[in-house]
Amino acid sequence: MNNGMFDTSVQELKYTILKEVANLAYDDKLEEGLLHVAEKIIPGPQPTMRCCIYKERAIVGERLKLALGGDPENENVVEVLDIACDECPVDGIRVTQACRGCIAHRCQNVCPTGAIRIENLKAYIDTKKCVECGKCMDACPYNAIAKSVRPCENACKVGAISMDDDKKAVIDNEKCIACGACVYQCPFGAISAKSYMLEAIRLLKNSQGNQKYKVYAVVAPSISSQFNHVKVEQVVSGIKELGFFSVVEAALGADMAADKEADELYEKGFLTTSCCPAFVNYVKKNYPGLAVHISHNVSPMEQISIYLKKVDPTAKVVFIGPCIAKKMEFRLPEVAGIVDCVITFEELLALLDSREIDLSSMPEAPLDNASYYGRIFARSGGVATAVGQALREHGKDDFVYNPISCNGIEECRIALLKASKGVLPNNFIEGMACIDGCIGGAACLTHGPKDKSQVDRYGSEAKEKTIAQSVGILQKFND
User: Fold this and answer.
1) Which tens digits make up the pLDDT trace of 417-443?
2) Nearby residues of 180 by Cβ (< 8 Å), 6 or more positions away
3) What is the pTM of this model?
């Protein structure tokens, strides 16, 4: 099924469903059309992915619900599709063929439940007695004892995913930070995010061609690592062709954020970033004592949206990026009315293709709102670099700037743990929940190795070379 645009057939199935829903919504045929989507996508008679076409169609039906906004009773933007969960068979902790049949029997000696026995000189684990404490794994000198972990559980670095009595995946909303790591890693696509694509379509259609109000698309700087078969400027034209009044860089909001965070850091002496909503959520849930040190400046998405609505009080803002956590952020009470909708690059592609917009044939429209430093927010290390630049531009050379860039939640955990114990030597924590930063976001079109230099090249193309120049233009406009 995979046509080469995506990494997996799971992504393609999701895209196909989104595209069908978008078509129906644009043509005002949702109510009657939804009944036939499953059969259209899974025509049969032979199944292509599951045991039978009826289960395949049932899964499509559940995916349609997510495309329509998901379960309203579930506050989380990430949901488990029970019927799609394969109940991945895992053996828990087991002895591998690497067991040498040693006579020390350290594994057996440390087992607190007597789950390990020796047969024919080899160790064996009674899974009924095993509590998976891992002591035998640590004790084995040959590393011959391994633990099988489901892909979703392995992907979740905050321990929010477990299995219920039916071996189905369950998300603990109290622990989940909506980073979306589990979404891409589930081989069966049983974990996915709610879509607000229909709200974006509604905003565009009800604007009456931007006469009733204007709809602005705010695009994340990580767009430079998407749609690699065309130029960013052609994607901008494609977005405008969808009906958006204007396309604005979230990187401009990043310039504004860096400019303000430099002053806040100088005043407070220690700070953690606020641009990644999953990281902010992680701090609040796991290190509440450090929450006071989270930058009080709003995220770049919010910064630029506030500015747009100040300039145009009737403006509607749709954020487009690679981030599932942004869907959680825009629904927060404190963000209500600032950002009207969030869609992902995957959903943007579905919208473009539903309107048969060929990006490769589109003219190039400029996107030149931000500076180099705002654009490199898209990669790990970019925020720290931008704040350092802002400190220099503000003439705060007396401040000893010692940042640490945390690439992924595990690195964030280590830095925050040290900070909570007062042993972190750094005074600025850049926290990114996704590996490589936003260019490694859960809703990227592709998930292969990311080229950070691609972001830097995109940043170097910016007309504004400093943060002061970028923010200064806004100030002049307001004056």
Assistant:
1) 999 999 999 999 999 999 999 999 999
2) 78, 193, 278, 323, 324, 325, 441, 442, 443
3) 0.89
